[in-house]
Design brief:
Pfam families: Mito_carr. By secondary structure, the chain is mainly α. Helices cover about 70% and strands about 0% of the residues. The protein has 10 helices and no strands. The longest helix is centred in the C-terminal third of the chain and has 33 residues. It starts with 14 loop residues before the first helix and ends with a helix.
């Protein structure tokens, strides 16, 4: 069970084990979904329509984009920015899951609401994601810059990127896109946790015998469903965040097509709506939903698996 469950007090795992389970789940998942993440970011940053009918569009489909990136930049392009992405996943997973466990237990101890309620999981999930985002946002900016750059590369190494960005754009560059990130991540993570627990209960109600036998499959399926629903509901803010994070980075984007400068979240949203229409707010949704289904499903799958592993070790030692 993700989050504090008063009916499962025998699941005796420490906060350190919760953090480790969150970190490892993020690490393994990131390796597997990195290619989709790179394609998604390229789609989000493309001003031109994602359509074959637009002759200026560099990318117009998942398979076409995958083939073109492979031909032009080689297979390693799908893991561009992988080191900062892994730092992001490891740190984010640890802080998010630990915060969520602590917050849901605090709610239970305070006797305010049932710690398993949809609203409690939504609120605690959103807050835990905000705490994790504040901790790792600079790494997210670095990951986006690495994934967005073409050839020749502007940044050769992680150290080169940090030094160059700090010198040319100042320390606040590492928190570009923070406002839309926090605005988007709260409902996104809130829906992830609350929908995940709700889908698990619905699965156990619909298939009581299967729910007990196939726990890992249930966690993967319900996590995937929660990821798709959450991402669809909050996707435009994720697109605005990516556009803002590459501000001041226009020279490295020239080979991909048109570039734009934005003064802030509202200006970005306004320009996208005026120039690209409402559908522009959902560019890259297809690979993003595929990524959300895989990443959220795998994160919850691995997290629960490692928590159960630590629980069994604790029982064996006691």
């Amino acid at each position: 069970m993700v989050g504090y469950d008063p009916k499962a007090d025998d699941r005796n795992i420490s906060n350190l084990e919760v953090a480790v389970a969150g970190s490892v789940s993020g690490l393994v998942t990131r390796v597997l979904i990195s290619p989709l993440d790179v394609i998604k970011i390229r789609f989000q940053l493309q001003i031109e329509r994602l359509s074959r009918s637009d002759p200026n569009a560099k990318y117009h489909g998942i398979l076409q984009a995958g083939r073109q990136i492979l031909q032009e930049e080689g297979p390693t392009a799908f893991w561009k920015g992988h080191i900062p992405a892994q730092l992001l996943s490891i740190g984010y997973g640890a802080v998010q899951f630990l915060s969520f466990e602590v917050l849901t237990e605090l709610v239970h101890r305070a006797s305010v609401r049932d710690a398993r309620d949809f609203s409690v999981h939504f609120l605690c999930g959103g807050l835990s994601a905000c705490v994790a985002t504040l901790a790792v946002h600079p790494v997210d900016v670095l990951r986006t810059r690495f994934a967005a750059q073409g050839e020749p590369r502007v940044y050769k190494t992680l150290r080169d990127a940090v030094v160059t960005m700090y010198r040319t754009e100042g320390p606040l560059v590492f928190y570009k896109g923070l406002n839309p990130t926090l605005i988007a991540i709260f409902p996104y993570a809130g829906f992830q946790f609350s929908i995940y627990s709700s889908l698990k209960r619905a699965y156990e109600w619909a298939l009581p015998a299967e729910g007990k036998k196939n726990g890992n499959f249930k966690n993967l399926l319900c996590g995937s469903g929660a990821g798709v629903i959450s991402k669809t509901l909050t996707y435009p803010l994720d697109l605005f965040k990516k556009r803002l994070q590459v501000g001041g980075f226009e020279q490295a984007r020239a080979s991909f097509g048109q570039v734009r400068s934005y003064k802030g979240l509202l200006d970005c949203a306004g320009q996208v709506l005026r120039e690209e229409g409402p559908q522009g707010c959902f560019k890259g949704l297809s690979p993003s939903l595929l990524k959300a289904a895989l990443s959220t499903g795998l994160v919850f799958f691995w997290y629960e698996l490692f928590c159960n592993f630590f629980h069994h070790i604790s029982k064996a030692d006691s």
